Amino acid sequence: MSASSRSARSAASTAPPGLPAASAYQALADALERNTVLTRLCLDFNQIGNRGAQLLEGLSYNRALATLELAYCGLTPAVGPLLADGLMKCPTLKTLELKGNELGAQGVLAILNAIKAKPGLFHVGLADTSISREPDVQALLLDCMATVELCCKYDLMGNMLGDQVRVRVRV
Question: Using alpha carbons only, how large is the chain's radius of gyration in Å?
Answer without folding.
Answer: 16
